[in-house]
Design brief:
CATH class: Mainly Beta
Bound molecules: FE2/S2 (inorganic) cluster
Number of helices: 3
CATH superfamily: Rieske [2Fe-2S] iron-sulphur domain
Length: 239
């Protein structure tokens, strides 16, 4: 049995034993501390309370590394991708009642544009947008993550695969765990080509100031706040 297949089976068994399902474990997952996604609006945050098509932001696995959480409104199925080095990995698809909830690092794999408090050039577009595919064809499609810095376009239904622009690899995926008895969502890890070290090298100082911490590489503890991108960033650029 291949290591990949063995790991997948083990992950499924662990999930079943814990009484939670379905579980977005990836065979190539880098595990971090399991963190509950919560809202500070006094409302209990559950998968059912998410607004379909609304991009949310949370920070994981570090307190200063932003991620998107999106209910796409349609199921997102498992797929095979490759990172910048050609290493392949399997994205396990969406979670939630309709397998439509996905999470990705919101750090663009091109030059690391990401949501900041003042502005975000990277955004999720539930409505159709026009873009140029990697082979130069003009395309129009909805449900895309679009980075307006240099027009990289990612497909969140397909593991954030790059559809257009200069991005060299998909956005790193965030592993989610959905509890179908409570509706709770947890982040449990990250997989694919992440940009965390490069992000800290380039933006660590600013991230520390933005989050009012000495160490932006501090890992998230047991919970992390989820908020609408439009509430977190003062200006969200759409293209
Ligand atoms: S930083 Fe996103 S396309 Fe350049």
């Amino acid at each position: 049995m291949k290591r990949r297949e063995f790991t997948r089976i083990c992950s499924t068994m662990v999930a079943a034993a814990a009484g939670v399902a379905p579980v977005a474990f990836a065979n190539d997952k880098q595990s971090y501390k399991k963190a509950l996604l919560f809202s500070d609006s006094n409302e209990r945050l559950t998968a059912a309370s998410l607004v379909v098509g609304e991009p949310y932001v949370f920070f994981y696995p570090y307190i200063s590394t932003p991620c998107f959480l999106i209910d796409l409104g349609v199921p997102a199925n498992r797929s095979e991708l490759a990172d910048n080095s050609g290493e392949s990995y399997e994205w396990v698809g969406g979670v939630g009642p309709n397998n439509s909830i996905v999470a990705y690092s919101a750090i663009c794999s091109h030059k690391m544009s990401h949501p900041a408090k003042e502005i975000s050039f990277i955004n999720y577009r539930h409505d159709p947008i026009s873009f140029y595919s990697r082979d130069g064809k003009s395309e129009k499609r909805a449900q895309l993550i679009s980075c307006c810095s240099e027009r990289s376009v990612y497909d969140p239904i397909d593991g954030a695969r790059v559809l257009g622009g200069p991005a060299p690899q998909p956005l790193a995926a965030i592993a989610l765990e959905y509890d179908d008895t409570t509706g709770d969502l947890h982040a449990t890890g990250s997989y694919g080509g992440d940009m965390y070290d490069r992000f800290f090298d380039k933006f660590g100082f600013r991230a520390a100031m933005e989050h009012k911490v000495n160490d932006p590489r501090q890992l998230v503890a047991d919970k992390t706040e989820l908020q609408k991108l439009s509430d977190y960033s003062g200006q969200t650029i759409k293209c």
